């Protein structure tokens, strides 16, 4: 075999390897975003704050901070302005479910909506009330076909456009967290999905960063509990019986 032929064979082999890698990256690699975490959420707030300060020519004189025990006192709402328009960096509610796709294999389907509203009321270190509503018609994943199916199958968002959570018992943090201090607790409430309302206990991790309360959480949901049928499609070979509801919320005082 001549040197030229060897080079051609080697080049063809390298081209096949590159083509295989490209196909894997596009079609087979699981590109689902990471599950919510308090560290990532706090990082989003911190980076947004630093960007804002860097773009300011002058720093206005800040009001004196409230007494430590009173920092949470009052009404709060979900801040949907953080994140610079990036879904994963802002306030969102979403789902995470494992599915088996024809010709592709196992993937994690993740859909998130940033179209949210919510009110929260704190007295001292206790969360006395909370109401959250998410617009599920705005759920977005990495597949437009999956998003379209959600409108008429599974969540059937054309028929049941909203999901809601209402706190049914106060959540006492024990003490008002200091700036940068994290906390973990549980929230008892009622979750409404697909027109069905059921009691639920949601584990929560949170942290107070300046004037923002960061809250994240994940909980497993059994589809049958909410009358949700698995999607039917030639591309979807199977879907697990359960999925995760996850949320990342940034609260601002109103």
Molecular shape: globular
End-to-end C-alpha gap: 78 Å
Residue share in helix: 10-25%
SSE order: HHEEEEEHEEEEEEE
Task: Fill in the CATH topology of the largest domain.
Answer: Lipocalin
What is the topology, as strand order, of the major beta sheet? 1-4-5-6-8-9-10-12
Q: CATH first level of the largest domain: which class? A: Mainly Beta
Largest sheet: 8 strands, antiparallel, barrel
Which structural class should the secondary elements be placed in? alpha+beta
- CATH homologous group name of the largest domain: Lipid/polyisoprenoid-binding, YceI-like
Strand residue content = 35-45%
Précis, in short:
With 254 residues, the chain is an alpha+beta fold. The protein is built from three helices and twelve strands.
Report on this structure:
The chain has 254 residues and is of the alpha+beta class. It is 20% helix and 41% strand. The chain has three helices and twelve strands, in the order ααβββββαβββββββ.
